[in-house]
Give the backbone structure.
Amino acid sequence: MSSWDTMRSAWEAWERHQPADERALTRVAFGHLKLGHAPCVAECAQALGEPETVVAQRLARMVDKGTATAADGRMTGTGGLSVAPTAHRMTLGGVPVFAWCALDTLGIPAASHSDAVVTASLFPTGEPITLTFRWGRLASCPPGVALQIVSPDAAREAMCGGT
């Protein structure tokens, strides 16, 4: 199994353990976030065919769990993708967005089969690097760069901004 297949399998296993209503909200919001737009609760509720109060409660629960971010009644991030600035900048299909962590900068372009340019900060130095993806495949990467996977709990504050 390739490392890409391993990452995809791990993501799919994690996602299967999330409540179905949260997966649905993540998918709706992710579609907006890819376009650089933070959807409001009303937009998500309409897309889901559910009352705004129900969606607002679900979003609050996701924020509490760390699987979403929100500001001013808008969902600013979920599934590792964000419109709120982080250390991991990305142009995804020509749209400027951000990723929560280094793994997301690899997984999001790969999973969405998108062209992307990623400017990330190396931990712990903060040195910037640039990666280029074409149709979801890594097209260019500085020599010697490697991704080290650590447990989410260990990485949460130091590398993922608390998400």
Q: What stands out?
A: The mean pLDDT is 85. The two ends are 29 Å apart (CA to CA).
